[in-house]
Amino acid sequence: MKPKSNIRQQEVQSNNLQDLAASMMMTMRRWVGYIALSIGILLPLITQLLTQCPHLQESISHYYYTVAGPVFVGLLCGTGFFLICYPGNADYEDCLTNAAGVLLLAVAFFPTAFEQQDTTCTTFILSYDDWVGIVHLSCAALFFLILGGVSIWLFPRPHPRQKENPAKRRLRNRLYRVAGVALWLGLVALAPMLVSEEIRTAYEKYKVVFWVEVYMLVVFGWVWLYKGRVVEAWR
User: Is position 171 within any domain?
Assistant: First the structure.
């Protein structure tokens, strides 16, 4: 039989490893949140500073064709790798965030079709087959669809080692679910583009896609910062 001192030492080591894993998970959540919040600000800012072009692109994805293109791809890849490495609190959460990470990498490496009314900020134009743009849009939609589901159903699940006031937990879970629905509403707002060329033209003219995508990225970033306890620290 093992001495009690050895058993106690193993328990301490196990708790330290669990605390380290929890700390790493919090850090990854925060980085995902920070990157998501920065995309909508960094890309227009870089384009403005380096090319003196103040015009917004018709979507976040169209910054691929500007001087900020490498930053766009880098931010998506960084977020995608974080999501793939993120372990999650349950098997389902781990699988879904892995899938979301792979989808985001596909968004980065399968560019959106270059169809813009305003090419003032464009630094290069590449022609792809139609299927490339379809893969880009499909993966982006599935990415937000999955993250909305994770926020609604998986993030509210309590962590086995986390003790929390019941009232505070109910409020937190309500916020997660509202954020998940908000992500899905963003997809609904963009859906009319698929059924009407006139609506698509209007969306492009008034940068509706860009602003809806920024809104969705802010919601996504806020959720992950909240999950990483950063928002609570701000409060």
Answer: yes
